[in-house]
């Protein structure tokens, strides 16, 4: 008998310590001052002007690059004063930058700027800075800032380049459209949940068509879709895959990011929950093999109750919810309660394990059929209604889910029913996760090998001639790889 347990709310670890606080400062129409002319000064002036600031530069001997800064300002303005600064020059400044080679001169300027109420940056002197500049990805009004706290600027610049490659340049027109449409959308959808649903549709459309400029017809279409969408709560059954967070589908990610509440199982990898939005509630409603488990009726009732309360509920399951995930019972519970329910499939443990091992589950010469079976019934014992003739066929690849307690009895029965004892077989523990482990053998000795290995974690068994071909090919690949090194 499993020990019953109740669903319980969990909390994400929250924020890790921050070396710096990332903030974005509005400088449009405000005054900024830069004094000095060291190596990074001209670029800082151009950045301030690009942000809309009115920049006064004080430098007795400006560089050629600094002399060209006023003409290169893409916004705001730059005025170059070919003289030393004075404290009076800082009056009314919102932002001030010290660009001196001399430490004492920097300290003097920083003190005067702070006394005038300005935010201060000192180039190459982080100990004197109120704020620092990071690497920037500019898709304005979409702006991404990257900081290494000054430790490795080159690393930050490389990260910037990677992000730039991921963000189409056309996103700037979509974000600009969102800014222009926001007032109209807010007036039409005064309820926060409705506005969020609209902007989620907007975001999906932007990612689908990033290189074209949005038009009024896009806004009209989004409004029509939002108006036609059913109101109230809903349930989405989402497959989390076998463990590796990178195996999540894009549709699963969108569901997680739009969920109000996430009901998840024990086997869901913790890092997958990191993709949920910060405001979402997370509740553990897991079942453990032959261990403490939430009753299915309690899970169904909680899921329906939350959805009836207007929440968008994600029921997050390991692997694929439609493969031994009791999805049918949860779908029925939602439909009986009149709750809209959809399913987002996931990568099954069998697919993930086979891919990580480089083994095909089918082979035109060895396995033309693939079958999934469960290793135990409602009582936790070997099912008495398995098709033993099918399980005894070595030309079929059989994958056994939840096999731990009954593996020995199941394989022995299959051999007794005609499965050749030398049929290749293996067990994969913690498929696709960093601690994945494999025990290889055959139908005759696999149970003994697993017992000797003493491994823990979720496991699946695979049996069939196709595995032997895959194992031989994998061994050859490993030998060739070792020889190459």
From TrEMBL:
Keywords: Cobalamin biosynthesis, Lyase, Methyltransferase, Multifunctional enzyme, NAD, Oxidoreductase, Porphyrin biosynthesis, S-adenosyl-L-methionine, Transferase. Residues 173-208 form the Sirohaem synthase dimerisation domain. Pathway: Porphyrin-containing compound metabolism; siroheme biosynthesis; precorrin-2 from uroporphyrinogen III: step 1/1; Porphyrin-containing compound metabolism; siroheme biosynthesis; sirohydrochlorin from precorrin-2: step 1/1. PROSITE patterns: SUMT_1 (PS00839). The active site is at 265 (proton acceptor), 287 (proton donor). Residues 235-446 form the Tetrapyrrole methylase domain. Coiled coil: none annotated. One of its GO terms (molecular function) is NAD binding. It catalyses: precorrin-2 + NAD(+) = sirohydrochlorin + NADH + 2 H(+). One of its GO terms (biological process) is siroheme biosynthetic process. It comes from the Bacteria. Belongs to the precorrin methyltransferase family. This is Siroheme synthase. It comes from Methylobacterium aquaticum. The lineage of its organism: Bacteria, Pseudomonadati, Pseudomonadota, Alphaproteobacteria, Hyphomicrobiales.
